[in-house]
Design a protein that fits this description.
Layout: E1 7-13, E2 22-28, H1 34-37, E3 41-57, E4 74-88, E5 92-106, E6 112-116, E7 122-126, E8 131-151, E9 158-179, E10 182-188, E11 198-207, E12 210-217, E13 236-243
Antiparallel strand pairs: 1-2, 3-4, 3-13, 4-5, 5-8, 6-7, 8-9, 9-10, 9-11, 11-12, 12-13
């Protein structure tokens, strides 16, 4: 676990055909199998889980839309499978994979809800019928990361940078509260013109199995048709946090 160097002396056959010829060798158990280490293409299953906080950047002075509270909103990304190409001595790698991500966005006023007006534009208003104890918007995407990785000797310093594409965006509203008829708990899916695709810039920095990430969505959070040109806040999602299993 500490990844210390462990040297042992073993006696092995130098030639399988000559059963009488044995030699002694020193083996570094820390390095494992050198042939496997320098393999050109390696596949990993659930190699990384990113957990952090999330919010948005938006144009100053255009606050018609809701802005998530960073301290209350969360982000989760799980890479299901990843392949890494060994470009140079298992230290410079080109990696790609597929995973899934979800933004759990909470807002300052739980009574505010988003909806489309009769012209098809996004609006935010106060719900006077329901009293919410929880009112959260979840955005989920299928993700495809494409990264260039650098790993120093013995993994004392690691860095990865690149892009991550999000597809098949899904929006749902998780709500819990009470109304005149009684308590309710519901998950609703309705259109507020969230962009169904996204492109993220990703940076990960760490050492050994400890790493931190920053993720910024280059594309707008909402579709261009969600606002008039003058009212569009151009919100861009971002998230920062930790990588549980390193890079």
């Amino acid at each position: 676990v500490k990844k210390e160097v462990v040297i042992v002396k073993v006696t092995v056959k130098e030639n399988e055909k000559d059963s009488n010829k044995w030699v002694q060798k020193l083996v570094n158990l820390r390095n494992g199998n050198p042939e496997k280490k320098d393999k050109f293409l390696r596949t990993y299953f659930i190699p990384s889980i990113d957990i952090g906080t999330a919010s948005v950047f938006q144009d100053a002075g255009k606050s018609d839309s809701l802005s998530p509270r960073m301290r209350n909103s969360a982000y989760l990304n799980i890479t299901f499978v990843k392949q890494s190409m060994n470009i140079y001595k298992s230290r410079l790698l080109f990696s790609y994979g597929i995973g899934g991500s979800t933004y759990f966005l909470k807002y300052a006023n739980k009574q505010q809800v988003q909806y489309l007006d009769k012209y098809g534009f996004v609006r935010a208003g106060i719900d006077s019928v329901n009293h919410y104890k929880k009112n959260r918007m979840d955005l989920s995407y299928i993700t495809v990361p494409v990264l260039l990785e650098y790993h120093s000797k013995n993994d004392k310093f690691n860095i990865a940078a690149g892009v991550e594409f999000g597809f098949n965006g899904n929006t749902s509203f998780v709500q819990k509260g009470s109304r005149s008829e009684g308590d309710f708990r519901q998950t609703n899916k309705y259109d507020v013109k969230i962009n169904p695709t996204q492109m993220n810039a990703v940076l990960k920095v760490g050492a050994d199995n400890i790493a931190f990430y920053a993720r910024y969505t280059v594309t707008d959070m909402y579709q261009s048709s969600a606002y008039t040109a003058s009212a569009n806040p151009h919100q861009h999602l971002f998230s920062v946090g930790i990588c549980l299993f390193g890079i």
